Here is the input.
Amino acid sequence: MGNKLYVGNLPYSFNDSDMQQAFSQFGTVGSAKVMMDRDTGRSKGFGFVEMSSAAEAQSAIQGMNGQQHGGRGIVVNEARPMEPRTGGSARRF
Here is the structure.
């Protein structure tokens, strides 16, 4: 198990420091990043947290997955590498 966690179904008002604070009860948070839409500046509703050890990451998953924040049950699991995108319509000039 790795130290990096995916956190989904976040309230749109959630920011990096909210996430840092929420996960710090389970250990040392190396980084906490809520992903933002570059056009609107609004949260995309998910982010990533990096804990200092795999044991702390596991504890955070058990303690935070399904918890209510801002009226939403958040989803927390181990982050997986981003899969390459296929298809789509890349425009070529």
Q: What stands out?
A: The chain is about 20% helix and 30% strand. The chain has one domain: 4-78. Residues 30 and 50 are 5 Å apart (CA to CA).
